[in-house]
Amino acid sequence: MKNKVVLFLIALSLMVTSCISTKDVRYLQPNESLVINEEGLVPYNIPIYRVTKNDMLTLNIVTTPKGDAAQFYSTLNAPINNPATGGVQGARPANVTSTGNNSGGNTNIYFNGLRVDSKGDINIFGIGFVKAEGRTIEDIAQEIQNRVNENFLEGKSEVRLNTDGITYYILGDVETVGITGEKITHKNTLTITEALAINGGLNRTVDRTNVVIHRKLPEGIKIAKIDLTREDLMNSPYYWVQNGDEIYLNTRSKNLNGFGKDPVQTLTTGVSVLTTALSIYLILTRL
Length: 287
Description:
The chain is an alpha+beta fold. The protein folds into 3 domains: 2-20 and 256-286, no CATH class; 22-48 and 166-251, Outer membrane lipoprotein wza domain like (Outer membrane lipoprotein wza fold like, Roll), CATH 3.10.560; 56-162, wza like domain (wza like fold), CATH 3.30.1950. It contains 7 helices and 12 strands. It has helices at 2-18, 22-25, 107-112, 137-151, 192-198, 253-256, 263-286; strands spanning 56-62, 79-82, 87-90, 114-115, 121-124, 128-131, 158-162, 166-171, 181-185, 206-217, 220-226, 246-251. The strands form 4 sheets. A 5-stranded mixed sheet has the order 9-8-12-10-11. Strands 4-1-7 form a 3-stranded antiparallel sheet. A hairpin with a 2-residue loop joins β10 (206-217) and β11. α1 (2-18) packs antiparallel against α7. The radius of gyration is 27 Å and the shape is elongated. This is Polysaccharide biosynthesis/export family protein. It comes from Chryseobacterium suipulveris. Residues 49-153 form the Polysaccharide export protein N-terminal domain. Keywords: Signal.
């Protein structure tokens, strides 16, 4: 009887210490460190993306088919007839993202876009080299626009420069295989919670207090750790996903041992361990 009581107490302690609580899985839980302004709002802390070497950019110079900048047309930004209006618009065909072969990236942009070379420049036909590394998309686009306006009438063309949306990468263990991989979102801004929601959220095995982000900067790669359970994460620049971010999802150590995923599994694992230990004990005592 005494042995049964001991076994019960051990099993109960395993359940208490190994089970996951609501504090482990809730996102953005209130805390006193959250900074809000006088209006009770969380200020935006969106970092400005700066172009780095080997980035791929898309350029489209919009003008009329016979306008002053007509020679800028290419296979990438050829005029397309618009049946709805009867007019012609200088626009690029819809991008086709590579899928099915797990190669990553957009093949159309890779072969036809502008690559930032090893010197940090992009080479635009008819314009020449433009410094891109370390600059914002808006800054580069404005320089291209100014150089177009030097040769053609101002107001007769519009420069549209961009990346292929926000490309980011999520890497986790086998439990998170459903959301692991390269992700592309065609939005101007994207929060870490939006990125996870788009991909179905996190399961219970992921340690929300220890998510690691590798951020690509012109100077190198910045490594940061964020806690998804803390509300003051919204004050961090890493709350906002940037183009090229790599998001690493770590597994709780207790889950690696079979504990903590859910109460039933914890109880089952605990009972199995105790049964095995008791069986070995009984065998040894009979020898």
